[in-house]
Every structure is written in C-alpha cells, then in structure tokens.
Amino acid sequence: MKLRHLLLALSITAVWGLNFSVIKLGLTRVDPFILAGIRFTLCALPAIFFIPKPDVPWRYIAGYGLIFGVGLWGVVNLGITSGLSPGIASLVLQFSAFFTILLGARVFKESVSRYQIAGMVIALCGLLSIIPITDGTVTLTGLALVLLGAMAWSVANVVSKKARTTQVFGFLVWSSAFSPIALFAIDYALNGTTGYRTLIDQVDTRAVLSILFQVYPNTLFGYWVWNSLMKRYPVSTIAPLSLLVPVFGLIGSAILFEENLSLDKVVAVVLVVTGLGVGLYGQRLLSAIIDRTTQPQR
After folding, report:
1. For residue 40, is it within any domain?
2. Which of 50, 68, 87, 197 could be disulfide-bonded to 250 (CB atoms 3.0-4.6 Å)?
C-alpha cells in the first residue's frame, strides 16, 4: 500500500472518530433530529442534480436513506444528547459489525465462525465494563440509543448489499434525499415547532461548522475516499484501519470536551477493539500465521 494512500485512509478514520465530538458541538445549539435532517439535506443537495440515479430499485434507495439517516444518525444524535460522551458513542457504535454478522447469518444464510463468536464475547465484556462508569459520560439511555443505532447500521449494511450497486457515491447521495423529511417530521412530532422557532436564534458559527464538517469531510468525502481505496486494495488491507475510529473518537472527546480517559475506558476500548479484531480478522490472521510457519525453510 502506497504511503500517501495509507495516510489518506488514516486521516479518514481520524475524521470519522472526531465526527462524534463535532456532532456534540452542533447539538449544543440544534435539536438532534433537526441537526441530522440538515446534514442529509446538504448531502443530497445540490449533488443530486449532477449525479445520475444509481441503477437499483427505489425501495433500496429509500430504505437505505431512512435507516441510515433516521435509524442510525438521528438515533445516535439523540443518544449523545441523552448524556453519552462522543468518545463512548464512537466505541459503542462499532457493535454494528457484530450485528451485521448476525443479521447476515439470518438473511444471507452466512455461517458464524467460532472466531466471530469469541470476538463478540470479548467485545461484550468491553461493553459491560462501560456501564459502571460514573464520571458523567455514560448513561443507560444513551448506551441503549447508540446500540439501537448500531443495529440500524447493520440493517443498512444488509440493504446496501442486497442493492448490489457499484455506484456507491450516487447511492449515498440519492438515498440521503429520503432522510430529511422523516427527520424533520419526527422532531415536529416530539417537540412541536420549538426546535424550528429557536433554530435561527440559537444557531451560531460553531453549529454551522459542525454541520458542514458532518456533510463534506465526514460523509461525502470520507465515504468516497474509503470506497475508492477499497476498490484499489484488498479489503483485508483497508478494513482493519476502521478499528482506529473509536480510538480517534476518544482522543477527540478528550481534546474538545476534556473527557477523562480513565482506566475503565481504556480497558473498554482495548476489549472492544480486540473483540472486533478477533471477530473480523482472527481466522484470516491465524491462517496467515500457519501458512508462514509451514512454508519450507530455505
């Protein structure tokens, strides 16, 4: 892998990790569902007028947009608003990998290996170690909401796989058009016109920058670059770098919000990241080690 591509991939994982803290900056001024609604409005517009519709059925485009926009990011925003720190949210959301494995086993009849089961158990220990933290960065409501968002992400992954599109960027842009109306409607149903009446008065430079960061570096540029690298290099080379997202998430939260990186949190990160590593790459790594050790010595 070329050095510039490695650095580019690392920068994307840093952007994705930092994004959780950037979301919290926006949530200090904008309601959770309105913030997500504005984000996906700008993801769709004006790009949708210049990018052709991907050649997949509308049900996949609409389904992905609603699940990814509302079920994932609308709910994650609500979880952060409910008291879960950005760093912990970035960590808990990684459970989507295991939910995707379980859902894939049911929908696509894929087998679940013993490495995946072992990884789930290790990561679950990490999740359980988060619950007793009492420094104000963890709430059960926030944990439950972000876990729900992780489940939604796994469903979105299944929808994307069933769509079988190669036009990843176009799929993201067109599906984003289905998120805003639902997000704005949910906020109106929950809060009436309060969030909209106060939006103009409360929004500031920090909130605007938060929205722009979520739309362009994080969503449009980030996913475009990541998927481009996935096409250029083997999945086994690029995908493991995503394990750094919660690490950057915690670092970003510590810098921007002075979150205390206690021993409990470090242990939780180690357990969850180790669980992800074992579950997603354990079998491949073991096979590589066996192949190397069984090669004839020269």
Report:
1. yes
2. 87
Six token digits for residue 105: 């086993």
92 with 146: CB under 8 angstroms? yes
| Count of domains observed in the chain | 1
Residues 6 or more apart from 292 whose CB is under 8 A from it? none
CA R_g for the chain:
20
| Among 183, 190, 152, 206, residue whose Cα is nearest residue 24 | 206
pLDDT above 80 (res 282): no
Give mean pLDDT, residues 221-240: 75
Instruction: Give the Cβ contact number of residue 267 at 10 Å.
Output: 14
Residue 14 in domain: yes
Residues 64 and 58: their CA atoms lie apart, in Å, by 10
The range of the structural domain enclosing residue 158 comes to 3-110+134-257
Task: Identify residue 293 by its one-letter amino acid code.
Answer: T
Distance CA 281, CA 253 (A): 28
What is the model's pTM? 0.88
